[in-house]
Model the fold of this input.
Amino acid sequence: MASTEFLGEGASLARPLPLMGLLICTVIFLKASGLDILDAVENGPYVPRLAGTDGSLIKKPRSDWSDDDKKRVDYNAKAKNIITSALSADEFFRVSNCKTAKEMWDTLQETHEGTTDIKRARTGA
Done:
């Protein structure tokens, strides 16, 4: 008889892993793909900027982007691709209107873990 010790309490071979397991696996894949890609998920996308005439930072026109700017902007697209590749159709449609990988990730976490207040209420903290 095959061992099922790797399954947690209440888990089943007939049901897929809960999304939280999938999110953990996705984080591992994001890290393996590059820490800059994971950074786009955790902190939001890189936006190339330059100093305006008054000293404030303004968005740099795409025509002025350096090769490094282009590379760093691409991290968000790569992160979005990794996240959406791991999702079911229902989960994909939940985040399909998100503009950034961070927004996708935050939406998925809030949907499946709850807000910070809900998490505190569950733990009694």
